Amino acid sequence: MFENLSDKIDKALHILKGHGKITEVNVADTLKEVRRALLDADVNFKIAKEFTNSVKEKALGQKVLTSLQPGQLLVKIMRDEMAALMGSKAADISLQGNPAVVLIAGLQGSGKTTFSAKLANFLKRKKGRNPMLVAADVYRPAAIDQLKVLGEQIQVPVFAIEGNKNPVEIAQKGIEHAKTLGHNVVIVDTAGRLSVDQEMMDEIARIHRAVKPSETLFVVDAMTGQDAVNTAKAFNEVLDFDGVVLTKLDGDTRGGAALTIKATVNKPIKFVGTGEKMDAIDIFHPDRMADRILGMGDVVSLVERAQEQYNEEEARRLNKKIATNKFDFEDFFSQIQQIKKMGNVKDLMGMLPGMNKVMKNIDIDENAFKHIEAIIQSMTPQERRNPEILNGSRKKRIAMGSGRDISEVNKLIKQFEDMKKVMKIMQSGGPRGLTGLMRG
Ligand code: GDP
Fold this sequence. Notes:
- By secondary structure, the protein is α/β, with parallel strands linked by helices.
- The chain folds into 3 domains: about 5-85, SRP54, nucleotide-binding domain (Four Helix Bundle (Hemerythrin (Met), subunit A)); about 100-295, Rossmann fold, CATH 3.40.50; about 300-440, 434 Repressor (Amino-terminal Domain) (Orthogonal Bundle).
- It is built from 21 helices and 8 strands.
- It has helices at about 5-15, 25-40, 45-60, 70-85, 110-125, 140-155, 165-180, 200-210, 225-240, 255-265, 285-295, 300-310, 310-325, 330-340, 345-350, 355-360, 370-375, 380-385, 390-400, 405-430, 435-440, and strands at about 100-105, 130-135, 160, 185-190, 215-220, 245, 270-275, 280-285.
- α10 links the parallel β6 and β7 (about 270-275).
- α17 packs across α19 and α19 crosses α20.
- The longest helix has 23 residues, at about 405-430.
- The relative contact order is 0.10.
- It binds guanosine-5'-diphosphate.
- The site of guanosine-5'-diphosphate (GDP) has 19 residues, from α5.
- It comes from Schleiferia thermophila.
- InterPro entries: AAA+_ATPase (IPR003593), P-loop_NTPase (IPR027417), Signal_recog_part_SRP54_M_sf (IPR036891), Signal_recog_particl_SRP54_hlx (IPR013822), Signal_recog_particle_SRP54_M (IPR004125), SRP (IPR004780), SRP54 (IPR022941), SRP54_GTPase_dom (IPR000897).
């Protein structure tokens, strides 16, 4: 996410680090490079200029030049300005009424259908809501099937009327249906076109008038940069929507749309999509996003994700095993499954300060644990529970079974033993052990 932009800003800040003394001249040089980085990220010229001017003004006002740590102070000012540009605080969605109606609008291919299902999943799992999805994209027949498949995956019912070409009627009937079944949120997925056109705008405006949503979200593909911003403007004129959803942020290395949408349409980004899977949805936090862009990572989100997966009972069980030196390969395997649930490894690593830069050229994919898993799975249950019995011939068999090299098997066993030692040390350090860390 935003690797290119982070990289360039980092280089710009190096101008300062390279100098023993910070002067008005090299602050100006740094900010000139920052502005160039923003333009390369597809940030609109006016916004980029206003941004750097404002940072400069604040920097001089706060006596950056005479402060003890001028570089850090400048980064802090940039971070606050960047967060302000994106809206400062996370904005909630409004779910008023029973059912609360959420209308999803945007161009075709922006990720509307995927997001509709992700939102339903989010509201169900994290907010304890009882949502229903309505398939009102009547022009793309596959969209209805797509929503049904996703609905099945997340166990949320999907309302559709086969053959009906009137999205207003479908939406209204859907809401009635939800009422009778006791669903308290209805998410209406609407049709998009390839580009902004009058017919689509008229239709979405009609649906909007008819269903009176408590929240209208405009979905846009982050990778389309300034086009995303222009489309947002067009939709906002017609719909006066409440918030923006930026999808495909996982593939966006530039970040221009994220940085400029709020300043252009004065509507907050509320959610971001970071992948095709149903749990690849995040609440948008401007301050955390600014941290990430400036290479400061996003430790808060990382800890939150860890906490979501944190299971008190499991932790207690593990603690006991570690204390009695009984942590085995079965525990190790289940820990890997926990980590995998937290999300894509590269994405997680990117949340650590400075890691975005390091990770840029490293190819870690979702299969990062595949080899380790294969080796563990090739062990017998007895071997997994008693790793000390792993002798030469057993290791050879495991290597054969998993299709990995014997050296890899040895390495894993060595790493496992080292890990056990570290765990024991951390645990004897009291509540600040591994599980203490997880609790934050
Ligand atoms: P719609 O036409 O607006 O309903 O768009 P879809 O929901 O069908 O999405 C278009 C394509 O983008 C599909 O292949 C989705 O899987 C993909 N997609 C949607 N959101 C994301 C995201 O956040 N990240 C990535 N990488 N792909 C996404």
